[in-house]
Amino acid sequence: MSQINKLKILNDPIYGFITIPNPLVYDLIQHPYFQRLRRISQMGLSYLVYPGAHHTRFHHALGCMHIMQKAIEVLRFKGVLISKEEEQALFVAILLHDIGHGPFSHAMEHSIVENVNHEAISLLFMHQLNAQFDGRLSLAIQIFKGDYHRKFMLQLISSQLDMDRMDYLKRDSFYTGVAEGNINSDRLIQMMNVVDDVLVLEEKGIYSIEKFLMARRLMYWQAYLHKTSLVAELILTKILKRAKELTQKGIVLPCSAPLLYFLQHKVELEDFDAAVLDQFAQLDDYDIVSALKTWQHHEDFILSSLSKMIINRDLLKIKLSSEKFPKEEIQQLLERFAKENNISLDDTGYFVFKGKIKNQAYSKEAEPIHVLMKDKTIEDVAEASDQLNLKALSKPVTKYYVCFPKQLL
């Protein structure tokens, strides 16, 4: 019987060759739960703004694992002891950190599942895989939850300078063509060390950290919170909300069985048993796009109008401001649209709405990025840096938005 060679090499446009380090990682990548990530776009609907942004969560997860390999190599070279078991657990934890993302990444979290974030679903998938793989993911789950005694391992997976952020900034910058987001991840990884169980970066890498934080801020304004990406995601959230509302009234909408399941049921975190998780694992971007293509011809004015907006990229107008929009202005827009289209003010809320977005490149409340100074003391990067802009980067910037149909201009 021929044995499959599980030590594969993949070609990645960012890093060149990525090696799959061991058979367990290969088997996890081959699992249907993970293969589903090929059908989940990394940047949601951002391709409506940046036509190249069609890369997936699958790409990103493999990239994170690759730079985790590099980080472990550097730390071992500097004398940090990491056992084979810990190494494998780090690979598994970073590989699966985003496995709980729903279609178009974030739109699902606010519409068809009730207040369930992707991190919680990722953990559910990990437990399910752990059962299937005879407990071989137990250490990875412990690290992912922050329960493992070596705290720096969690920092590699989830912190203000983790493998996740390092990969998505570099990758999203590459696929969107937004050059400002490009970072020197090699340099950052070479500067890593561990002191007293804390992940630190050596002082000589401080400019690379500043560049990383600056890149993150710029990528948020130019890509992730770009007003067109933002309005597209808001419209998608409204569509799913409307679809759920109609389904609850007994109107059966044509769509895939897994999507229909989530439209028919109120699903909260405690409802996620193995059967619900299996339904979720069947959902991807294709279910949503396919539904939108059908729903654009539906007799419900709201569902069809909003679906057409996404399919034909003819979106709502969005205005951004550093000040709140006056209530009277929004009320006027609501009343005009309701009158022109002969619909209720409640229903008009699907077309005219407001909200706010926040961008904070570096948070002083969260665990800081630790810098190992030449005199062996450890400082928060915001204090260690002589750049005034780093202090500015830790201030949250809030912008307010209002969305409305273009004909109201």
What are the defining features of this structure?
single chain, 409 residues, alpha+beta, four-stranded mixed beta sheet, three-stranded antiparallel beta sheet, 9 strands, globular
Describe the protein's architecture and organization.
With 409 residues, the protein is α+β, with helices and mostly antiparallel strands. Helix content is 49%, strand content 11%. The strands form three sheets. The protein has a four-stranded mixed β-sheet. A hairpin with a 5-residue loop joins β7 and β8. α1 packs parallel to α4, α3 (57-77) crosses α8 and α14 crosses α15. It is globular. The N and C termini lie far apart (70 Å). The relative contact order is 0.11. The model has no long low-confidence stretch (mean pLDDT 93).
